[in-house]
Amino acid sequence: xxxxxxxxxxxxxxxxxxxxxxxxxxxxxxxxxxxxxxxxxxxxxxxxxxxxxxxxxxxxxxxxxxxxxxxxxxxxxxxxxxxxxxxxxxxxxxxxxxxxxxxxxxxxxxxxxxxxxxxxxxxxxxxxxxxxxxxxxxxxxxxxxxxxxxxxxxxxxxxxxxxxxxxxxxxxxxxxxxxxxxxxxxxxxxxxxxxxxxxxxxxxxxxxxxxxxxxxxxxxxxxxxxxxxxxxxxxxxxxxxxxxxxxxxxxxxxxxxxxxxxxxxxxxxxxxxxxxxxxxxxxxxxxxxxxxxxxxxxxxxxxxxxxxxxxxxxxxxxxxxxxxxxxxxxxxxxxxxxxxxxxxxxxxxxxxxxxxxxxxxxxxxxxxxxxxxxxxxxxxxxxxxxxxxxxxxxxxxx
Length: 398
Fold this sequence. Notes:
The protein has helices at residues 26-39, 63-72, 83-86, 90-103, 118-130, 132-144, 149-159, 171-183, 209-218, 227-230, 241-253, 257-260, 270-277, 284-291, 298-309, 314-326, 337-346, 367-380, and strands at 14-19, 43-48, 52-53, 57-58, 77-80, 108-113, 191-196, 200-201, 204-205, 329-336, 353-355, 394-396. The protein has 398 residues and is α/β, with parallel strands linked by helices. Strands 1, 2, 5, 6, 7, 10, 11 and 12 form an eight-stranded mixed beta sheet that branches. A two-stranded antiparallel sheet has the order 3-4. Helix 4 packs across helix 8 and helix 5 crosses helix 8 (171-183).
């Protein structure tokens, strides 16, 4: 942790938000305003997934567009999380990103939930720790029955009657539980501030990210997002897996079961099924429907297919994870005056490697993100600007 004894930020409330903004919408705009007020935050640090998001797909629009929208809506500093933290199941996603915020001397963690509050989540985490052996045994039984790990885990929890009356399977609750669980392992814990989901903001209905992506792709209705996001959206640049599908099939055509088995995440014979069904699949959605089963969730399959597309072999991934454990690396996407002051405060004190611009001397520690972005630029075929080496942080002077 940082030594901030003589700093102007010693008594400041620094709020961290872990997010993806896929895309930035009215709920996110509301969250920035409401969390700042509830936490009485002096500075808001946003740690955002880059162009690849947690569920194993490219974000619908670029990291720079999403960062611009966040800075225009209340964020003070937007940092791009390393891909090894983003392209993970919920537990690792939460742990890796909370660790980064902790090492950046953030002292408050804010996030949205469906209905659970801070004490609900904390009570659940304490119960879970007490029941760990029983949960693990139940998970093993369900795995042996052929269920995926997420399904086995949920069946185990349901059989043990966890406390609280909230749905632990909702994405916001699932992540919130994991945030709190990792926070409980820290010697110097972050304060937790939760925000229940709002239905409206500024007289506009707040739609979910999936509803918005569908509205943008089917009808390109920009009214579903704030103007700061809408102004940066163009139909030709919207990204989804179907655009990448021919490139994925090209990658798969180069593999045998033995070589595919070396890709990060491939296990339990899934390589044979992938190679058996991909040629006959006419679309990405058809491929997914042929691969998802009670053993394999859609998100797990998508993360594997993203690893195939990006050619992340297990040894590559382990090297990146080793570098992350030694020194997490983030890229600055943008800042306000307050964000710049905070950067000046932490730059020589934190164990996090903070990159202000990508060049030959800084690229080695951000290879996962750079590979994902380079392939995205090829898929978009000139519709998307170069994402790193010609970019500098967005500056928003307020």
